[in-house]
Design a protein that fits this description.
about 75% helix; mainly alpha; 9 helices; about 280 residues
């Protein structure tokens, strides 16, 4: 009886150890992923600022950010690190599908579905980054890729509907991102007990301003995709770079692009803050 109990305890201890190891791996993946997201947003924001001030050569998107990295010593290795970080982000989101997200009602089906969508999104991003790192992703910019994908989908049966629905989904996602940032729903995920009051206030500003600007970019990009569907014109679809450049074509001129670009940089810094203080 004692021997049996001993084996049971050992099994329980092993299970507990496995649970702790899994938990530790999820936390590491989340923090690495969030930090990597921050790097990409800061780089894209800086490139967008350059465009706003007249330097039109760079692409203000993920591919442009990766290309910018490769121009510096050790940049090629950093691109691989970025790819690994995005993979970690995808795996973290996938873990939320399996185990549920942190916070109240984190195991609801809607929460798991949202995490699944994020896992797929970051999986696609990871593939793009790793392809670039391997030297197979530099031939075509993100804007052209958006037009090519739109053209291919438009050619399939019900393609116009599919493109329109995809654009609508992106636009709605952007609006949701902006609204959630304005409502500061991210506060529920912060470990505020580990933050001083000034840091807490600064992170709230970063998350609010950065999130609204990020949402504006998504919503605008989605609007262009919807327009491409309605006009049956794949050239109307725009990637991140052309979407950002479109802000400079508004009556506000380049200053609106400056504001959005600064917001993206702030969101990148906010991602770094989340990497430190987000409850996972």
């Amino acid at each position: 009886m004692n021997a049996t109990a001993g084996r049971g305890d050992t099994g329980s201890g092993t299970g507990s150890a496995n649970g702790r190891n899994t938990r530790r791996a999820v936390v590491v993946a989340a923090r690495c992923g969030l930090a990597t997201r921050g790097v990409l947003y800061v780089l894209v924001g800086v490139l967008a600022l350059r465009i706003a001030f007249g330097e039109t050569g760079e692409q203000a998107d993920r591919q442009g950010a990766l290309a910018e990295l490769t121009e510096h010593p050790g940049g090629a290795a950093l691109v691989w690190v970025i790819g690994a970080g995005v993979v970690a982000m995808a795996l973290w989101r996938l873990s939320e599908v399996v185990f549920g997200a942190v916070g109240p009602k984190g195991d609801r089906a809607s929460k798991r579905a949202a995490s699944a969508a994020r896992a797929v999104f970051y999986g696609v991003v990871a593939y793009s980054v790793l392809t670039f790192a391997a030297g197979r992703g530099g031939g075509q910019d993100g804007d052209q890729q958006s037009r090519d994908v739109t053209a291919k989908v438009l050619d399939v049966p019900a393609g116009q509907w599919l493109v329109g629905l995809a654009g609508l989904a992106i636009a709605i996602a952007g609006i949701v991102i902006a609204v959630q940032a304005a409502r500061r729903t991210f506060r529920d995920k912060l470990d505020t007990a580990s933050m001083s009051e000034p840091v807490h206030k600064a992170v709230e500003v970063l998350g609010t301003v950065g999130g609204i600007c990020r949402g504006a970019v998504f919503a605008t990009a989605g609007g262009f995709v919807v327009h491409a569907a309605l006009s049956y014109d794949p050239s109307a679809a725009r990637g991140v770079d052309e979407t950002l450049r479109s802000f400079a074509g508004t009556p506000a001129g380049p200053w609106l692009l400056v504001a959005v670009a600064v917001g993206l940089v702030l969101f990148g810094v906010f991602s770094w803050a989340m990497a430190m203080w987000r409850r996972v």
